[in-house]
Design a protein that fits this description.
Helix content is 29%, strand content 45%. By secondary structure, it is an alpha+beta fold. The protein is globular and about 45 Å long. It starts with a strand and ends with a helix.
C-alpha cells in the first residue's frame, strides 16, 4: 500500500471541514474533473459522491463510496474509475501541535490496476498523492488564512 503524508498549517477540524465537503474534491483530488452529485449524508458510511475523471471530452463518470468514517480522524473510501478499476483510499488526520499530519494510503483493489506490480504501482500512487496533499494543503490553508484575515 502506497503511503504519503504532509503536515498542514491547520487544525484537524479545519482539514476535516474540507474533507467532509464532497463538492470540493475536484479542487484537491488529482484526476477528479468534476462532481456531478454528492449524497446528502456525505461523509457517512455508505454515502457516495458521483464524480467524473479524465479530461473533456474523454470523461469517465463513476463514484466514490465511504466505507468507514471517524470524523476529525479518518475516512476510508472506495474510489471507482472504471475501466482502470477501484482503489481503497484511507485518509488519516493526526494533530501535531496546532497543525495536522495528513496521511493518505492507497492501493488498487479491483480491476486491471490490480495486475500492475507493486514496484510500478506504488511510485505512481505516491506521486499522485504527493500532489493531492499539496492541493489539499492549498485549499485548507487558504481557507484558514482567509478566516484569520476576516
Amino acid at each position: 500500500m502506497s503511503s504519503t503524508e504532509r503536515v498542514m498549517k491547520a487544525t484537524p477540524e479545519q482539514v476535516w471541514e474540507v474533507l467532509s465537503d464532497g463538492w470540493l474534491y475536484p479542487l484537491w483530488v488529482v484526476g477528479a474533473s468534476r462532481i456531478r452529485d454528492v449524497d446528502e449524508t456525505w461523509p457517512e458510511v455508505g454515502s457516495e459522491l458521483h464524480h467524473s475523471v479524465g479530461v473533456w471530452p474523454a470523461l469517465i463518470d463513476d463514484s466514490t463510496q465511504v466505507e468507514e468514517c471517524r470524523p476529525l480522524r479518518m475516512i476510508k473510501l472506495r474510489a471507482r474509475a472504471w475501466p482502470t478499476g477501484e482503489a481503497r483510499v484511507v485518509i488519516r488526520l493526526e494533530p501535531v501541535g496546532a497543525e495536522t499530519r495528513v496521511v493518505i494510503e492507497e492501493n488498487a483493489v479491483n480491476g486491471p490496476a490490480v495486475l500492475m506490480p507493486k514496484v510500478v504501482q506504488d511510485p505512481l500512487l505516491g506521486w499522485r498523492n504527493v500532489e493531492t496533499l499539496r492541493r489539499l494543503a492549498y485549499v485548507v490553508e487558504r481557507r484558514v488564512a482567509g478566516a484569520v484575515g476576516s
